[in-house]
Amino acid sequence: MLYYATKLVLSAAIIVVVSEVAKVNAGLGALIKSLPLISILAMIWLYVDTRDVARISELSISTFWLVLPTLPMFLVLPALLRHGLGFYSSLGISVGVMLLCYLVAVPLLARFGITI
Hints:
This protein has 6 helices and no strands. By secondary structure, it is mostly helical. The protein has a domain at 54-116. The mean pLDDT is 92.
């Protein structure tokens, strides 16, 4: 149980650090947020739990392909905010765009033999 609590605290600490840094310096907050810290932690926890490097390799490749459909969200959100739409509406639409991109990307990747 202590192991899971440690994983939880370390993972949550990253989120807190990013949000607090972003309050002071948006650029630095964005830099820290753009680091694949959650992916790195997930790979570390998976390795510690299983020692299965093949699974880690699969996770890494799948993560690469699944990051791509998230990128439009980071362009749509600021565009909507600049046009005066409220934050939660903009965020909701941006997440919807991201989900639509996933719905397109996963079958498209499968056509090229990349299964997620």
